[in-house]
From TrEMBL:
<dbReference type="Pfam" id="PF00501">
    <property type="entry name" value="AMP-binding"/>
</dbReference>
<dbReference type="GO" id="GO:0016405">
    <property type="term" value="F:CoA-ligase activity"/>
</dbReference>
<feature type="domain" description="AMP-dependent synthetase/ligase">
    <location>
        <begin position="8"/>
        <end position="162"/>
    </location>
</feature>
<comment type="similarity">
    <text>Belongs to the ATP-dependent AMP-binding enzyme family.</text>
</comment>
<dbReference type="InterPro" id="IPR000873">
    <property type="entry name" value="AMP-dep_synth/lig_dom"/>
</dbReference>
<keyword id="KW-0436">Ligase</keyword>
<protein>
    <submittedName>
        <fullName>AMP-dependent synthetase/ligase</fullName>
    </submittedName>
</protein>
């Protein structure tokens, strides 16, 4: 069953493949990159078919995801990395130069990684009462005045929105 389809490239992602790849990415983040619960991972990519795999892989690893506008300048990108406390970046090919330039500034000890797929899978973090108030997403406002501001969205907020 096709779960995601990219209208630009016509690449498709089946549900089983998405689930498997997300769990493998989570294992790679934890076992290969030292990712820990509560770490922030920045996704620096336009919308494309692999985006959900990265998003759910980071969540399955117990992390927080911040979404970075792929059109940001290096300065805007750097600001969001500092402000969000992101320690990991997954960048689309067209954003790699900006991502590595920001990393050269040694922001938050960031280690830019591309897909970190492990042979093992990790089971997603189990639901708990604590998860209700745990941040899942750190989205940034467009900033009508001053700098963009981070807006925390908890797991419970997402469930309530989907319900």
């Amino acid at each position: 069953m096709i779960f995601f389809s990219d209208g630009t490239t016509d690449k498709k992602l089946a549900y089983g493949e998405f689930k498997n790849n997300s769990k493998k990415l989570a294992a790679g983040l934890i076992n290969k990159a030292g990712f820990r619960r509560g770490n922030v991972l920045a996704i620096f990519s336009p919308n494309q078919v692999d985006y959900p795999t990265v998003l759910f892989g980071a969540i399955a690893a117990g992390g927080i995801v911040t979404f970075v506008n792929p059109m940001y300048t290096i300065e805007e990108f750097t600001y969001q990395l500092k402000d969000s406390g992101a320690k990991y970046i997954v960048a689309f090919l067209s954003n790699v130069i900006k991502a590595t330039t920001a990393d050269d500034k040694e922001i938050n000890g960031i280690k830019p990684y591309s897909y970190l797929i492990s042979e093992k899978e990790v089971n997603p973090v189990e639901y708990s009462e604590e998860a209700k108030s745990t941040t899942a997403y750190l989205c940034y406002s467009s900033g009508t005045t001053g700098k963009n501001k981070g807006v925390e969205t908890t797991h419970f907020n997402m469930v309530a929105n989907l319900s």
